[in-house]
Amino acid sequence: MTIQATFSRRLGDFQLAVATDIPAQGVTALFGPSGSGKTTLLRALAGLDRIAGGQLRYGSQVWQDADTFLPTHRRPVSYVFQEPSLFPHMDVRGNLRYGMKRRIRSDGPGFDDVVHWLGLENLLDQAGPSLSGGQQQRVAIGRALLSGPEWLLMDEPLASLDHAARARILPYLERLVRQLELPVLYVSHASSEVARLADWMILMDRGSTVAAGPLDAVLTRLDLGPARSEQAEAVIQAQVAGQDPAYALTRLTFPGGDLWVPHVDANPGASVRIQILARDVSLTLEQPRQTSVLNVIPCRVVDILEQDHQAILQLDAGGSPLLASITRRSREQLGVQTGTQAFAQIKSVAVLV
Amino acid sequence: MLNDADLTALWITLKLAGVTLIILLLLGTPLAWWLSRTRSRFKFMVEALVALPLVLPPTVLGFYLLILLGSQGPLSGLLEALGIGTLAFTFTGLVIGSLVYSLPFVVQPLQAAFVSMGQRPLEVAATLGASPMDRFFTVAVPLAAPGFLTASVLGFAHTLGEFGVVLMIGGNIPGKTQVLSIAIYDHVEAMDYANAHWLAGLLLVASLLMLMAVYRLGRRYATVGPR
Q1: What is the model's pTM?
Q2: Which of B120, B129, B132 lies nearest to residue A102, judging by beta carbons?
Q3: Smallest CA–CA separation between A339 and chain B, in Å?
Q4: Which fold has domain A233-351?
Q5: What is the three-class DSSP state of A87?
Q6: Of A335, B11, B95, B145, whose CB is crowded by the most CB atoms within 10 A?
Q7: C-alpha angle A303/A308/A310, rounded to 5°?
Q8: So where are chain A's domains?
């Protein structure tokens, strides 16, 4: 069931203005710069803070309106905080069992399954503080899952970890969210995490929900923050189409065409997610004949944004949105306009999953 | 050595400290919890009232309690009507005096322990489906265990050593309201220094041992005195 949230309230130095539906499937990223109100909204959804005048509905259930406020422990949500926050007076097993004993519904993942998914077998009898940050956060995620929620709310769960720990825990998280049919609301300001995990994106800026939609669409809209940033990127779902062992390359296919990437260890037909940075895409009006760039995709220019020396182009490649970043001078010399047919030369493709 | 009267005084003292501590934990825990969580603008007043016995001479406390609980006191009518009668110069009166006198020694360490754990563990418990009562007993109380230890030892030890309040409200009735500190006073008055030594030494050693236990086991929670 969808969560419908409406908040309109002045809080300190910013105005919270939220009106959004959160789809009940896959991972929804609540994305925006620090201080944009993401955590405020997440805490209100969980009932940890009560923001007066808000409306929260979950299907036919009212979580909050003018005269109702369902307390946190009665909402079918679990929450993973930025810091692992394990109970220091319990060992790992006790932490995992705490939520399990208090399930609202009888179903939900089993203890052994969660322990296995998160690789916690050897940690069960240890005390929380003796674990590394990454291990603690894995326990915290397992604890949240074992409480059998209908929604998992995560507040930058990787932000307190160092780079190495983050890299180790991400695959666990990816596997979990794909395996469990549990909708996840994931707060983050790290585009790398969002690109890997999210299907849907709600963009926040200075307390307001600015846009919401499928990840690839929101990332490539030129009127929004992500496409204007240094990290401007497109995220595309593709399938493995074949291997070229002689050159250690893998061929991927997506609606816009085929892409060659460094060897991916996956069977044909496997779904992979790829990330293409705007600055790795250049434009040419004719099919290049002699080029070292492997990936050249026919496309149409959909939208143009000029800022400083740059022109950021939104491209349509067989229905998949791409971004290209070129100089304004190049754009003028090539005579690129909205609607121009061209070829995107993609210098680098990152395979995420 | 201790004579029979001294042993009786010792027994009354231990009973008084024990009963007082149990009641203080029952009353002081919710009060400390409320103080640690409230945003009420009257919080400072309650805190000041709780801390008052720390700075007030015990005789002042005892004097007002005597007036309040005595046969001519404002509560005497009510107490008579309830069939309790006058409480001054009774063991119950002593307990009431000790409750007031030792209140800050129990409430303040508990409050500090509840504050120092922060909101997070309780929020986590709430998101895992624990009701407020459930969170209190399964998270707040275990995490405040060092605070409970400090509160118990200080509350008990402080009641052991009280003198002024007891003298004012309990008088000095051997076998009924005479406690150790007053028995010592009596021995000294009677120039019986030998017996005074025994009792004084007993209190000194017992108090020192208890305080050492507090500082050894839970020193970072031991915050006594108005903050």
Answers
A1: 0.85
A2: B129
A3: 51
A4: OB fold (Dihydrolipoamide Acetyltransferase, E2P) (2.40.50)
A5: coil
A6: B95
A7: 45
A8: 3-219, 233-351
